[in-house]
Amino acid sequence: MALIKVDVVSTERSIFSGEARFVEVPGTAGELGVLPGHTPLLTGIRPGTVRIEAADGSQTFLYIAGGFVEIQPDRVTILADTAMRADSLDQARAERAREQAKALLEQQSDDIDYAKAQAELAEAVAQLQAIKRMRKQNQAG
């Protein structure tokens, strides 16, 4: 079975390094599914979940908050602004952040940075989705 080398790094540290048979990445234009032999590609990524499927079928879920992905036929390198394993995310904190961002967006005031509030909302929603996907996989496995 052909495998692809995967490296996920944030500005602070390496989050994941290993081999996989499939990688799913939230690209800016939509979800990217990467198999060994993929056509070379460099694109931005949006906040979301990276799913890495190992040769044995086990899956790793990572939350990323944007950055870039470089895809080569034998390698996927994700350079993320922020990245962490989905199992280390705090669901209550993410829900509070989502509610705070929603409340800010509902206000009609000149003092609000709407772009920042929208970005915070997108990140909170992406964190909650990562948690949900990881839990769903754990229940199925």
Automatic annotation (TrEMBL):
One of its GO terms (molecular function) is ATP binding. It comes from the Bacteria. It is a peripheral membrane protein. Its main location: membrane. The keyword Cell membrane applies. Produces ATP from ADP in the presence of a proton gradient across the membrane. F-type ATPases have 2 components, CF(1) - the catalytic core - and CF(0) - the membrane proton channel. CF(1) has five subunits: alpha(3), beta(3), gamma(1), delta(1), epsilon(1). CF(0) has three main subunits: a, b and c. This is ATP synthase epsilon chain. It comes from Pandoraea nosoerga.
